[in-house]
Design brief:
The structure is a homodimer of 351-residue chains. Chain A is α/β, with parallel strands linked by helices. Chain A is 32% helix and 24% strand. Chain A has an eight-stranded parallel β-sheet with strand order 9-8-7-10-12-16-14-15. Chain A has a seven-stranded mixed β-sheet with strand order 2-3-4-5-6-1-17. In chain A, helix 2 crosses helix 10. Chains A and B meet through helix 1, strand 3, strand 4, strand 5 and helix 3 of A and helix 1, strand 3, strand 4, strand 5 and helix 3 of B.
Chain lengths: 351, 351
């Protein structure tokens, strides 16, 4: 019984991690340790890929952007993320991508965590990229080219440092101010940071090429002649229909690794290719049922579009981390009458 | 510019209506006036049905229940609801259905409202039922049979009183305690309330038959011989695959009205019928392009499963009502760096 009928019971309360608390939690754990831990959660969930309830994200497109819901479940927990993608937003002082997410108990259907996911998405995307690169990048890779120096660039770079072990990053963006921002933010990271004047210059000597640009169009950030043998391409920015970053010839030449094929087919670089274009599912590389990098000369391509299971991993991580901490507040989100059938009575008694 | 870089800006804040604030708002407006106003919002949105981005709900089923996301958009606003359905929950002291919802600006992708929707769903479901009954019930209907006396029963009854003008309700539930609860809650409603010992008794003299039971199975709450001519059946409880309330013969005999056919096909009473079974879309009745009740002897059936547009209407209503009130709090849900591309810098500066 409740001690006070007007106070919500514990069942009515959902832990909520605000932006402020997410930032406090990240500083408490440390950015690189958290990226490493997140990559572990993502890798664990890719390893049990087959048991997840999987569905392509549910997208609502408009002329200026997209709003998406990305649900999944492992049978015990259910998670979903709300995320928008509006490239024009930055010109108006808003984020291209904002997100929040929710984790619920499959057995009761009750939410157990609501959290900001704008920052968390940048963290999980970087962790996933680095986790994939661990399997796909050439052994001993030391240098990454980071093309597109927007909101994700520092996270991508630090994840590759923490998880793959790079010691150098070469930056390029068509807006040099964006490059200056990343260089400044990474100045004390322990990495050698080189600002470059062109994409060609950025990829010189790099074993990992990360593209993360935001234009909602079929762009050509990398052309075929720019990409030599033995590199790993981590293509992050192409993530919706009509939005790609690589010239078709590179995609044709590379060995492609994907998250969830039905989604990559319509959102990734794969949308440029015929239906029978071969690819490998990343989870199969992680479970050992498919080969990752085969030899030193191979060009590997992680055609990343972001999948709900990665958000699920991030939600699990946050749920586990905030227990017995003050990095959350309780939100009175769920109606919880003493008698579950007496919703109306609860309403009347609150008058 | 922000006055304090560590305080979230207005753009980062999302108005949140808690359960407590929802109850305060309902009392401020009044239950019946709010049901009437909600029915108006739902009717307005049914009238512009064709311009909505419509999709069947995205359901994740388990052995014990379902978790669903119900998104829609009118091109200017985007809304979705999270809702679970777990009939076994009441035995464990939990709600069968809990819900929350979100409204966002399509142009920016930024959320503009987060709200509890457990109570609001009961309100909008009742408002929608009564709005449909206004077009489908026999003229001058005075009496409703309310079969299934769970959490929705009082809301359904008061909406039929406020919008259709009934003055009498006849209650039945297999659990007499549930009936006692509803009778008690409606004692001062101004309605004649009759507790009945069987479904047969409850429907005596009733022009509107509302079924709202929760078993996740193909049940037969009404058999064919129970239903005379000239009644309107408001079937609320059958709302997922394998869950129906009416004997097939009634469904075959009635003129069926539905919300969104692709969803009703798999979730409503319609799932009992062959693919070519005729039905009318409710929005067409409201716009005048299809006929509602044709004559006094006809049996009409609103095969209600609940559709995203009804939640969208409810979200619009709440957004409009809370402006310049204290029925909400601001939630720090969205990361909003001064420079949208400098998410990492915002994180670092918060340390």
């Amino acid at each position: 019984m409740k001690s006070n009928a007007l106070q919500p019971s514990g069942k009515a309360l959902v832990p909520f991690v605000s932006v402020d608390n997410m930032m406090r939690l990240i500083h408490h754990i440390g950015v690189e340790p958290m990226l490493t831990a997140l990559a572990g959660y993502v890798e664990d969930d890719f390893r049990r890929w087959e048991l997840f309830d999987k569905t392509p994200r549910v997208a609502s497109h408009s002329d200026v952007g997209v709003i998406e819901l990305m649900p999944t479940s492992d049978g015990e927990a259910y998670g979903f993320k709300y995320v928008n993608g509006h490239p024009k937003n930055t010109k108006e002082g808003l984020q291209t991508v904002t997100a929040f997410g929710l984790l619920a108990d499959v057995y009761t259907g009750y939410p157990v965590l609501l959290t900001e996911m704008t920052i968390l998405t940048a963290m999980r995307t970087a962790a996933t990229s680095a986790m994939a690169a661990k399997y796909l990048a050439p052994k001993g890779a030391t240098t990454m080219a980071m093309i597109g120096n927007g909101a994700q660039a520092e996270f991508q770079t630090l994840a590759m440092k923490a998880i793959v072990g790079i010691d150098s990053v070469r930056l390029f963006d068509i807006d040099s101010k964006a490059t200056e921002k990343v260089a400044r933010n990474l100045a004390s990271s322990g990495l050698t940071v080189v600002a470059c004047a062109s994409a060609e210059e950025a990829i010189e000597g790099a074993q990992i090429l990360t593209t993360c640009t935001a234009d909602k169009q079929n762009a050509t950030i990398l052309t075929d002649n720019m990409v030599g043998s033995g590199v790993h391409i981590n293509a992050i920015g192409g993530d919706c229909p009509g939005k790609t970053e690589l010239h078709r010839d590179i995609v044709a030449r590379a060995d492609m690794f994907v998250e969830y094929p039905p989604q990559t087919r319509i959102e990734g670089e794969l949308q440029q290719m015929p239906d029978d274009h071969p690819f490998t599912e990343l989870w199969q590389v992680i479970t050992g049922t498919a080969q990752g990098r085969r030899d030193a000369r191979q060009v590997t391509l992680f055609d990343s579009v972001g999948f709900a299971i990665e958000d699920f991993s991030a939600l699990r991580f946050i749920r586990d981390q905030i227990r017995d901490t003050d990095y959350y507040m309780d939100l009175d989100l769920l109606a919880d009458p003493d008698d579950p059938r007496d919703l109306f009575g609860m309403l009347m008694r609150s008058a």
